[in-house]
Amino acid sequence: MKAKLLSTLLIVLVSAGLTLPLVRADTLVKEDFLQESFSKTVDFMDYAKGYATLNGLEPPSANQHAYLYMNYINTSGLQLFYAGLDNITNEGPTAFRIPMQSFIMHYKTENRTRDVLLASTFLMLLAFNETSTSTFQNSPDIHDTLWASFSMGFDLTALNATLPSLNSKTETIPLTHSDDKLQWTWGIKYTNLTALWWRTWIDPGNPHFEGSWPVAITVYDELTFTYTLTIDPTAHTATLTENHIIGRMRDLLFGAIPFLWIHYNSTGTYWLGQKISNDTVYDFINNNQIKMSIVNFQTSILADRETYSTTTIGENVTNIETPVKDTSINTYADDGEKISSADFNSKKTYKLFNYTEDQTEQNYTVNEATARTAKAAGFARNAILFAYQIGLMKFLPLVVAHMYPGLYARAGATITNMSRANYFYITGYGNYSGYRVEHDPTITLYITTQATGNANNPPNSGTIITIVLVAALVIAGAAVILHRRKPKIAAETIPPPPPS
User: Fold this and answer.
1) What is the rounded CA–CA span in Å between residue 334 and residue 106?
2) By C-alpha distance, which of 422, 473, 494, 459 is closest to 116?
């Protein structure tokens, strides 16, 4: 019965989705990765279709499209590839805005002995309610009530007459640089996003989620990411910073009876189009003590070694839960060579904008964020929850064939395999109430790079450079909701790259 109701819901949502004109897509070719930089919007499924044709594989259908905003910077021995999803279609005219962000970086280790790929993926927004048996305060753990929140650009007008007609949009912020090419900026902004909340459990012994019917549907104003890469030749540093905004929650539909939702917005509570209470969406979130967090995983790849990560006192963090707000996580090759260091002590606070008190959202309070690692199995064995997200991400290692072919095979088996993560980390926001959050925690990587030149034409001399990555607050992709079957080329491993 629940499955039938879910199918009915999805039919309504898809019919109420966004029918968009075809995005003008650029062509991605291997020669692009020899450039100092490029910025393109690419239909990555077309790229995958070409790859499948060259390698005798079954291609995606002609009606499957995934438009990715790609930026690539290739300088000073560092290659940084960024992909932000604009919209996705799946064998139909309806397109969905899914705010998915991914980074792949190639660099040399500090003593210049090894090439490293580092991949960062931001999985999802995870709402939680703490219980009397909670292990970690202001952070979701296996004893809490958890809801996985996946976002897409649905128009929910068909569900309730009091809902506004949505028009989800994506605005790309162009890649630009200073005259001396020591600073690069770009970004992406999503507006009017709809998220479905699913009850989920992250106990490593029994990870699962209740996918038969969403607990709630929420609407957010915006989700914006802006990135700045700054290179300092004197200090031998490069800093990648991200400023992000998750807009306030504007609408929340809650209820176990399909299509008889209780609807909360900033003016009150509604049922069947009639106002029944003055309690707002912010009252609902606050009264039910619902808090918010983000879940991320990070992977490092070497050609001939495995990697592991520890706290500064030597605790292995791959399969343990430990607070890391006031410390760092160091990643090493299995022979002890240091690869990177993630510093969670550098940005411990976030801004919260109380819309109820200030509808201009100019004033804010400063609150303390939490950060900790999580047991990988609680998420990796729950991978069906991310099936379509991973199905798309499995194609991203194709770019490694052009960035650094020597690590291509390992990338295909590792980057999107959550069980191969060095660690999962969760950033928690204990004071939330559905208001806008701004946060920019930092992660520091220690690498060797070149003083001048690019990664494919480096000079002879090398210097030490520090890359500072800023973790995003991301509502991760949710194409898993559209269909439960696997994508047509969602192989567990990626075959050898196409011939040159």
Assistant:
1) 19
2) 422
